[in-house]
Amino acid sequence: PYTGPSADEIMAKRKEFLSPSLFHFYKNPLNVVDGRMQYLFDENGRRYLDAFGGIATVCCGHCHPDVVESIVNHIKRLQHSTVLYLNHAISDFAEALAFKMPGNLKVVFFTNSGTEANELAMMIARLYTGCNDIISLRNAYHGNAAGTMGATAQSIWKFNVIQSGVHHALNPDPYRGVFGSDGEKYAKDVQDIIDFGTTGNVAGFISEAIQGVGGIVELAPGYLPAAYKSIKKAGGLCIADEVQAGFARTGSHFWGFEAQGVVPDIVTMAKGIGNGIPLGAVVTTPEIAEVLTRRSYFNTFGGNPVCTAAGLAVLKVIEKENLQENALVVGSYLKNRLIELKDKHEIIGDVRGRGLMLGVELVTDRQQKTPAKAETLHVMDQIKEMGVLIGKGGFYGNVFRITPPLCFTKEDADFLVDAMDYTMSKM
Ligand code: PMP
């Protein structure tokens, strides 16, 4: 049993010694002390079904034994910087990752986070093209350092950064966007930005295939092929941010962009790829990778032996436990159950997403699509009391984000939907 400090004691220390900008979920914040696959346990040993941890950290389940064993073995033997010396863990994971990529995407740069990966990807695009302009989508989240915060396009995540060179294109949002599900119409805005906002040449384009922080917005079909075409014509590189949608989560494909039938020039990833261990990566072609030989590129811990050992273990678990298939089967089942719930509860305006990356948008008026922000918080709090954890997102904070570890089962899906149904019925 847990004998550490209580939630109240931790909160008191946070208030005094930690950043005032830290936020937490729930009226009574949850003190999690143990994790086991799709479950988390609080200080009293109470079990919670974790339907959000997949995004935050875990891909194959909290404390998955294979991943833990790999990390422990490596850390007992050696932990060191990524650079300077040789170590097989780093090259083994790079090789395994390259095998998962389409086309000629086979050179890997490791980082510690998604922000670092996107910073690097944007820098590579600028070096390779000699241009500065980058196009990203409104409602996107790409990171919180100077360059990536410029690419991020939601006011809540932006400080006073100099956003030099980033233009934000119309978001191909099938639910709220003006062109509905017609991806090509939205892509015309990318061409307009190139024509009217740049010299006609750009460094590149960056987007997720399914926006995570933005509220599980799957880009309208046909959008990426058309946008990529305009970017390539303008000499730019196409960057796919797979920090949330990658690594088998969407079920139908290993990478989110594959559902749109495109092959990016650069792919970035992080979060789940280390199952909770800080790890990010940028994958590109040998030709593009060449630009980083112009200077020395150094990152002390990006892809160090312990983290890359975790990454390799994750890939093996996905393979061994058929987690992509599970994401497809359980995700489709869960989505269908959520769609049924929408028929029953007026407050659900939209159910969307793919595999185990699903969103449920709450509105007080289906016609006006008025965000039901308070209700979203209420349901989240209520189902937490029943033992189910989900996330929220979207610009208006009115979208449930359901992104569990990929070992989620149909029984888990039923429990989640039943808890939501019960709460909504009582509202
Ligand atoms: N890209 C996407 C799509 C993300 O969701 C995030 C994190 N929310 C990032 C990049 C940044 O990752 P990190 O927090 O690891 O820097």
Automatic annotation (TrEMBL):
The keyword Iron does not apply. Transmembrane segments: none annotated. The keyword ATP-binding does not apply. It holds the Pfam family Aminotran_3. Keywords: Pyridoxal phosphate. Belongs to the class-III pyridoxal-phosphate-dependent aminotransferase family. This is Uncharacterized protein. It comes from Hevea brasiliensis (Para rubber tree). The lineage of its organism: Eukaryota, Viridiplantae, Streptophyta, Embryophyta, Tracheophyta.
